[in-house]
Design goal:
Strand content: under 5%
CATH topology: 3 helical TM bundles of succinate and fumarate reductases
Order of helices and strands: HHHHHHH
Helix content: over 70%
Number of strands: 0
Structural class: mainly alpha
Number of helices: 7
Shape: globular
Largest sheet: none
CATH superfamily: Fumarate reductase/succinate dehydrogenase, transmembrane subunit
Distance between the termini: 32 Å
CATH class: Mainly Alpha
Number of domains: 1
């Protein structure tokens, strides 16, 4: 739950780029200037992500993919959830280091211009595109899996409706994420 809320908040914060580079910089400055920001980041962002990653890696290690033998869509989505989780983990680690940790260690504020310099390099831009799409898929499909696994949505028709809504969430968040990246270049 905290990771999903943070993802939505992070996209909302990055959407300040649609207003102007200055609005983005001011919002980043506001967020990084919050009292106890390092504690907040560790307790409510980094530790939940690490916990989720450890659980996810154990599921990947213990899980058995059978999408080749049984071509059902849910088998493919089971595989895709694990695959995008791995991509998301790498992306989040690199993104966190290059944007938050590195600027913190260097005592510099992260700015629109800094992100623009990163994304103007084609390899980095495409790394970010693949990363944000993986994160968005993992989030949306994770909602579906959570609702089914925990018995919140049990009927076949309800599961189909939720599946459609989670695809809308995936496509919508991916489009927003890519549009945000585009504003930096």
């Amino acid at each position: 739950m905290p990771i999903g809320v943070f993802l939505l908040q992070h996209l909302f914060s990055n959407a300040y780029v649609f207003i102007s580079p200055q609005a983005y910089d001011e919002h980043v400055k506001f967020l990084t200037g919050l009292p106890l920001v390092v504690f907040i980041e560790i307790a409510f962002i980094y530790l939940p992500i690490i916990f989720h990653a450890v659980i996810g890696l154990s599921i990947i290690y213990r899980g058995e993919n059978n999408f080749v033998d049984y071509g059902y869509s849910r088998n493919w989505l089971y595989f895709a959830q694990r695959f995008t989780g791995g991509i998301a983990l790498i992306f989040i680690a690199v993104h966190t280091y290059t944007t938050r940790i590195q600027s913190f260690l260097e005592g510099q504020e992260f700015t629109f211009e800094a992100m623009q310099q990163i994304l103007q390099q084609p390899a980095w831009f495409w790394f970010y595109v693949v990363g944000v799409v993986a994160v968005c898929f993992h989030f949306a499909n994770g909602i579906w899996s959570f609702l089914i696994t925990w018995g919140i949505i049990v009927g076949r028709k309800a599961q189909q409706i939720i599946a459609a809504w989670t695809w809308v969430i995936f496509v919508g968040l991916s489009a927003l994420s890519i549009a945000i990246l585009g504003k930096f270049i």
